[in-house]
Design a protein that fits this description.
The radius of gyration is 20 Å and the shape is elongated. It starts with a helix and ends with a helix. With about 150 residues, the protein is mainly alpha-helical. The protein folds into two domains: about 90 residues; about 55 residues, no CATH class. The chain has seven helices and no strands.
Length: about 150
């Protein structure tokens, strides 16, 4: 998988993972997604602010301009770190206990005659996110209370 496709997969995974707070106890995705979304919204503003602040108060200072550029670059790379982590996580195979849980959720969805995406090979975290999203939409609230 190419470097940039990992970022794209991370964005897909970010949008697929259900926003159920109870999953945050089990998986770190909830915290990473929350942080990445926050960074996507605020870090571009901080980058612009760093450059504008430097231009207003230290126009002719080259060192201040260098520091402002580095601050802006650092701020812009923070959301990319979250997307990269999410992309790598999405394509990694599930651990044994999570895979068992994945198959249990798939079985519950089949019991209510809901289609489950076809699976070839070992399930990944992206597959888990898709199944959890479908469970969030189709299964009743008691499913989340059992977790």
């Amino acid at each position: 998988m190419s470097f940039f496709s990992v970022f794209k997969q991370g964005q897909i995974y970010l949008n697929t993972w259900p926003k159920e707070a109870k999953l945050g106890i089990i998986f770190p995705e909830h915290r990473v997604i929350k942080s990445t979304r926050f960074a996507q919204n605020t870090m571009p503003l901080i980058a612009v602010f760093a450059i504008v602040w430097q231009q207003l108060y230290a126009k002719h200072d080259v060192m201040a301009f260098s520091a402002a550029i580095l601050t802006a670059l650092f701020a812009l790379f923070i959301p990319l770190q979250g997307l990269y982590w999410l992309g790598k996580r999405a394509i990694s195979p599930l651990e044994a206990q999570s895979a068992t849980w994945f198959y249990d959720i798939c079985e519950r969805l089949r019991n209510i005659h809901e289609s489950v995406p076809p699976l070839q090979g070992k399930p990944t975290y992206q597959h888990l996110a898709e199944v959890l999203r479908k469970a969030e939409q189709r299964l009743n609230r008691t499913f989340w209370e059992e977790i």
